[in-house]
Acyl-CoA dehydrogenase C-terminal domain-containing protein (Streptomyces hyaluromycini), 70 residues
Amino acid sequence: MYLEAAGHVVVGWIWLEQFLATGDGDDVLRQGKRQACRYFYRYELPCTAVQFDLLARLDTTTLGTDDTWF
C-alpha cells in the first residue's frame, strides 16, 4: 500500500512538471498534457489520502500472519 501511495505522489509530481513545461503554448499536444494532468490530480491523486490514512494507523494485521497458513 505504501508503494502504491508513494508511487501516485511521484507520478503527480511528474505530471506537475509536464504541466509547467507546456508553458503558454496552445497546440493540441500541450492541451492534451494539461488535460491528462488535470485528470490525474482530480481522479487518481485523491486516492492516496485513504491509503496514507490506513498506513498512519500502524495496523499490524499483515505482520501477524504466519507463513505456514498458506
Remarks:
- The CA atoms of residues 37 and 43 lie 10 Å apart.
